[in-house]
Amino acid sequence: MKDISKATIDRLPLYLRALRMAQDEGLDVISSEELGRRLEITPEQIRKDLASFGQFGKKGVGYYVNELKHSISNILGLDNHWNIAIIGIGHLGSALANYHNFISLGFNLVALFDYEPNIIGKTVNHVKVKDVALLEQTIKELNIHIGIITVPGQFAQEVADRLVKAKIKGIWNFAPIRMKVPDDMHIVNEDLSIGLSCLSYHITRKPH
Amino acid sequence: MKDISKATIDRLPLYLRALRMAQDEGLDVISSEELGRRLEITPEQIRKDLASFGQFGKKGVGYYVNELKHSISNILGLDNHWNIAIIGIGHLGSALANYHNFISLGFNLVALFDYEPNIIGKTVNHVKVKDVALLEQTIKELNIHIGIITVPGQFAQEVADRLVKAKIKGIWNFAPIRMKVPDDMHIVNEDLSIGLSCLSYHITRKPH
C-alpha cells in the first residue's frame, strides 16, 4: 500500500459514519455524489481517497453500503476492538469516557485512572476509576492497547513515559505539550484550539 | 488572497503555538528547519504554507519570531478577540470552559448556558451558567460572536437554529450530528473520534 496522506486518513471515519447512517436509513447502495452531499466533500475527493485503498463500488451504480463500511472499518483497524484506558478523570477525561462514538466504533473502554483520592473509586460510564499507581499492572492484566492522556500538562510526560515502559501500542494526547516518546511509539496529539482558530479564520473573512 | 487549503489553515495554530514557545525561550529568529523539527512537519511544508499568505522571513536567516507570530494571529483573525459562549455545561462544556489555550489565543469566554436547574447558577472558570432561555437576549447584550454547542445530539439542531436566528457569526459543533444551517453560516464540526480512529489506523500497521 502506498503512503496515504493524513488528510485522507482523517476523512475515513467521516465516511464510515455517513455509511452507518445510510445503512440505518435502509440504503443498500450510495453514490459518491450522495455521500459527498452529506459530508460536504466533493465526490472526486471521495473517489480519490477510496481508490488509494483498492477498488470499491461499481461505475454507474455506486458503493455497496455494507461492503464499504466493513472495508473502511478494516482499513482503520477498528475490528481489532482495541482496549482503551483514560488517564486523568477531570472534566475532559469524564467527557471522553462518556463519548458514545468510541464505543460505536468498536473501542472498549476498560480502565480509568486518576491520582486524586476523591476521584479514585468513582464510576464513570460503568468503569471504576483506579489509582494511577496501578497503571502498569492494569495495562498488563487487562491487555490495554491505547492510553488517552487527559492529565494537566505538567504531569503528561511522566504518564507518557510510564505508558511507553508498559508497552502500550499507542497514545492519544490531549495535554497541551509535545511529548518525548520513542520513534516507534504512535502518538496522536489532539489540539482543541485548532477548530476554534479555523472558525475565527473563516468568520474574519466573511463577507458583510 | 487565493484559496487556501483546509490543511494549511489547520496548521497555522500549530505554528502560532510553536512561535510563542520559541519567544518564551528568548528566541528572536527561528528557521523553518527548527520550526519543522519542533512540530514534526517538513520545512518545505512550512515554507509553502506561509508563502500562501505573503512574504515572511529572510533567506538564510529565518523567520522573525515576534513578527511572524503577529502575522499568523492576524491571518487567523485572533486579534478580533471574539466573544464566545458555550451551550451545554456537561463534562465536555465544562472542560472547554476551563481550556486555557482558548484564552491564550485571545478568545473571551463571556457566557455559559444550560437548561438543567441544578447546573444553572453554577460558576465555571469565573463565568456563571445562565438558563438557556436567556440565549438570544444574552447574545445581543454581550455581543457574542461564536457559539460552541456541547449539548446532546437530539437538542443540537434546535440550539443551532436559535444561534442562527440570533445572528451569531460562527458555530463550533461538538454534537455528533450534521446540522442544517444557512449557507452563509460558518460552522466547524468537531469529531473527537477522528483522532482515535487515526491512531487505530497507525497501530494496526505498526511493524512487530
UniProtKB/TrEMBL annotation, chains A, B:
PANTHER family in the record = REDOX-SENSING TRANSCRIPTIONAL REPRESSOR REX, REDOX-SENSING TRANSCRIPTIONAL REPRESSOR REX 1
Which controlled-vocabulary keywords does the entry list? Cytoplasm, DNA-binding, NAD, Repressor, Transcription, Transcription regulation
Q: Where are the transmembrane segments?
A: none
Annotated protein name in UniProt? Redox-sensing transcriptional repressor Rex
Keyword DNA-binding included in the entry's annotation:
yes
The residues covered by the CoA-binding domain are 77-178
- Annotated localization: Cytoplasm
* Annotated family: Belongs to the transcriptional regulatory Rex family.
Q: Which domain of life is it from?
A: Bacteria
Protein's job: Modulates transcription in response to changes in cellular NADH/NAD(+) redox state.
